[in-house]
Structures are given as structure tokens and as C-alpha cells.
Amino acid sequence: MSATRVQLGSWPTPLEPAPRLATALGLRPDDLWVKRDDLTGLGGGGNKVRKLEWTCGAALAEGATTLVTSGGAQSNHARLTAAAGARLGLDVVLVLAGNPGGPGASAIGNIALDGLLGATVVWAGEVDGPGLAAAVDEVAGQLRAAGRKPAVIPFGGSSALAARGYAECGRELLDQAPDLATVVTAVGSGGTMAGLVDALGVDRVLGVSVGAIPDPGRTVAELASELASELASERPSDLASERASGRSSGRGGRAVASTSLRLRLDQVLAGYAALTEPVAAALTLAARTEGIVLDPIYTGRALAGLTAAVEEGDVVPGTRTVFLHSGGLPGLFGHPPTLARARAALRELDPGPA
């Protein structure tokens, strides 16, 4: 049976030229374009909306009354799950790593929006990935015991089902820029890159890990392989037609090896929550060349990775490069080091001699 999707976003998102940023990076002015998935519409926008259309569709099909998901204190996925629940009339419980009042957990940024959107927050304490998953299971069990019907949305919203949203995005990109050579994306929980790989193939997708999971290569490869298998079994006639026409640029149901992925691990540096010098420079460059605001955890790292890829010759002038802006702006307002640095950069008018 085919998966069920609900409409939560506005599609297709724009593909915009970024000539001044391209020149600053060492590319030609018409080489670099930005896929504006920060403009997906729901709850402040961002890449998680594409995934939630599929995971929320499955939850509704199962008769769920409550969405339960997990993430860090400033999780963009948690915020957008809260927005999706509000749109669909479902309760939302967010199980977040950390403690009230701890780093990133003050009522700013995404936390403030979680409350505005009506979500319930359960603080899981200082836990690792398995600990957070165990806390989700406990909360879901409590809800079932109380007579509610919870649907658990995976960490970061990423699963083979959710990755279908970025397979759709990849097909959008083929319509908007059929000559694209590389699309650059941040890699958190892995679903975004996995979906893009399904639509575009491994050679055209450059992922930049942000340090959200311990083995992003293995996770992306597993998600992409599972997605390819599911899609091939659902629509074999469509797959054969795509192959015959040459329209498909994906893998056609074949498994993906982690070693075949274009995946950069060099931008994690001091850790997931840290503001690094390359990321700070990337945030400033995007803002001052194109008026585009990135965030310090995801898109800032992705642009720092693209900068390094150009310097190393992995991305070259004369080819179409697309930078996926996956959103995350509210998280910037929950990241004190970035806010302090931005405030320190304010210029004051010098009136000159009296």
C-alpha cells in the first residue's frame, strides 16, 4: 500500500540566484543558486515540513490523536512538529534533551515558539541518543495508558518514509535546474540527504555533517537504500518508464554504500552546539552578500563546507551549484554566542569632526 501524504507546505519553493555570494566564494556569478526551503510556509519554515507531510500522513492514517517526537532543546524539527500538530488538530508532546533553564533551554528561539504553538514539553535531562529514545518510549507508554493514541515521529523527523519529502525536492530541482552539478545540504539526522540522493544520485549531492548523530554516512546510506527499495516495490512500472526515458537521475531501487557518498565531516569541529570560526564567517558572508540569514548549527555549517569544497576543488567554477537553505532561523535566536557576535558587529555612525 502506498504511503499517505498530507499538505503542510507551499511547493515548489523558489530557486534564487546568489551572484555576489558566488563571486565571494570563487565561483562565477551565475554558478550558485539557493533553494529556499526556509520558505516552506508552516511554523516558520524549514526542511522538516517536507518530511512531516509524510510522517503526519501516516499518523493520521493510524488514527493518532497525539504526535510525540524528540530533539535538542532548540530543535527545529520539534518546533515544526508542534506547528504541524496545530494545523492538523493533533496534540503534540516534545521530548527534549536537557533541563529547564539549561544551555539552550531558556524561553527563547524555538522554545518560545513551541509554547506559542501549544506543545507540551518533557525534559529528558542530559541524555545521549539511546537515553532520549528511551524517554520517548516512556512518554508514549504513559499516553497510551491514559487512553490516548500517540504516533512517534522519529528524532529529527528522519526515516525512509520522511525522506520521500526530499526525493520530491530533488525532483523539483531537476525541473528548476536540470543542469545542476551539485546540491549542498546540511546533514543532521540524515533524511534530507537520503531523499536527495534518491532523486539525484550520489554524485550530485554534497552533504555537510553537523554532528547530530555519531555515524551520518551509515545513517544516510541506510535511509537512502530503504527508501529506494520501498519506492521500487510501489511503482515498478513508473521506474521502468523513467529508466526508458532517461528522466530519472536516482539509483532506481539500488542500495547505497556509505563509502559512495559525498559527505564532509570537517565542519563539526568543537561539537554540534559550538559556533566555530568557519561558520561565523559563513553566516556573515551570506548575510552581507545576499541578505540571507543562516543559522549557526545547520545552514551555517553547510555554507562553511561549501566554502571548503570550492577551496579544495571539489566544487568548481562553471558548473551549477545549488545551496539548500533548510531553514533554522528561530534557532539562531536561541544561540547566545551567535547573538552576542552579531550584536558586537553592529556599526555606529561616526558623525566626524564637529
The number of strands is: 10
What is the domain total for the residues? 2
Report the helical percentage: 40-55%
CATH class of the largest domain: Alpha Beta
The CATH architecture designation of the largest domain is 3-Layer(aba) Sandwich
Oligomeric assembly: single chain
Mean pLDDT: 93
| Beta-strand proportion | 5-15%
Structural class: alpha/beta
Largest sheet: 6 strands, mixed
User: What order do the helices and strands follow?
Assistant: EHEHEHEHEHEHEHEHHEHHEHH
Radius of gyration: 20 Å
Low-confidence stretches: 245-249
**Alpha carbon gap, first and last residue:** 77 Å
Shape: globular
Query: Looking across the biggest beta sheet, what order are the strands in?
Result: 1-2-10-7-8-9
How many helical elements?
Answer: 13
**CATH fold name of the largest domain:** Rossmann fold
What does this protein structure show overall?
It is a single chain. The protein is an alpha/beta fold and 354 residues long. It has 2 domains: 15-44 and 159-344, Rossmann fold (3-Layer(aba) Sandwich), CATH 3.40.50.1100; 48-157, Rossmann fold. The chain contains 13 helices and 10 strands. The strands form 2 sheets. A 6-stranded mixed β-sheet has the order 1-2-10-7-8-9, with helices on both faces. A 4-stranded parallel β-sheet has the order 5-4-3-6, sandwiched between helices. Helix 2 packs across helix 6 (164-176) and helix 6 (164-176) packs across helix 7. The longest helix has 19 residues, at 216-234. It is globular. Mean pLDDT is 93; it is low at 245-249.
